[in-house]
Write a structure and sequence with these properties.
- Helices cover 44% and strands 10% of the residues.
- With 236 residues, the protein is an alpha/beta fold.
- The chain has two domains: 4-16 and 102-233, HAD superfamily/HAD-like (Rossmann fold), CATH 3.40.50; 19-98.
- Strands 3-2-1-4-5-6 form a six-stranded parallel β-sheet.
- Helix 1 packs across helix 2 (39-55) and helix 2 (39-55) packs antiparallel against helix 3.
Length: 236
């Protein structure tokens, strides 16, 4: 079976401080929806509903459905009325956050090399955003035209990181052999947990997130060394 490389996005391919990004994102989305609810109330509802979505392990609910079920009563407006507004936000306002990403071209070079090697590429970002927002962030590191085999997002996934079910779903949907996969990410608890499923793991240094007690990565180093690491971790 061919080799598959799963890449996290924020802090891995994107040279982006996720905490800073989320602060600016919440400020922007709160202001955009100020006609629906006071910004502080609206952003509190987003945080609470995102946490509920991440905690959800009901396989009958997509992440979108889990978020909406929690969010609607907090804001007091039908979700069907608010969702088009979110789509408008991601088209009109979300691209303004691009300046928070400090790109140097490494992600594009690494992904292009992996693609030329014939490896399957999966964007294994935490699926808490809609596809439109994820594809916009891919533009920020020139990865939007990479031939991704699969991109996880809020509508096509039923679980979030750090749950192992997230990786199990990717394996099932994409028909993967975990022993022929490498998970590449910067978050010890969210990304390296793929090791429990039999995947190899590579921890990208630079913007490492480690809350303690996570699995030890098989290899670690800069993003630029990922192609060489794949050859070591998954020899032919």
């Amino acid at each position: 079976m061919s080799r598959t490389v799963l890449f996290d996005l924020d802090g891995t391919l994107l040279n982006l401080d996720i905490e800073e990004f989320l602060r600016h994102y919440m400020r922007l989305v709160g202001a955009y929806f100020s006609h629906v609810a006071p910004p502080e109330k609206f952003t509190r509802a987003i945080w609470a509903s995102t946490n509920a979505m991440i905690a959800n392990l009901d396989p009958s609910l997509t992440n979108h459905e889990a978020f909406a079920a929690h969010f609607e009563p907090l804001v007091g407006r039908p979700w069907e009325e608010m969702w088009p507004g979110f789509m408008d936000f991601y088209v009109k306002e979300f691209p303004r956050l691009r300046g928070l990403s400090k790109e140097d071209g490494v992600a594009f070079r690494v992904l292009s090399q992996c693609s030329r090697s014939g490896w399957n590429l999966i964007l294994a970002t935490n699926p808490i955003f809609p596809e439109i927002a994820i594809r916009e962030r891919l533009r920020w590191c020139d990865a939007h035209e990479i031939p991704w085999k699969f991109i996880t997002h809020i509508d096509n996934m039923h679980f979030c990181k750090p749950h192992l079910q997230y990786y199990e779903e990717i394996v099932r949907v994409c028909g993967l052999d975990p022993s022929r996969c490498v998970m590449v990410g910067n978050d010890v608890q969210e990304d390296m947990v793929a090791k429990s499923l039999g995947m190899k793991t590579y921890l990208v240094e630079g913007l490492v997130i480690d809350r303690g007690g996570g699995p030890e990565p098989d290899l670690r180093g800069p993003l630029a060394q990922v192609p060489e690491a794949i050859e070591k971790l998954l020899p032919l």
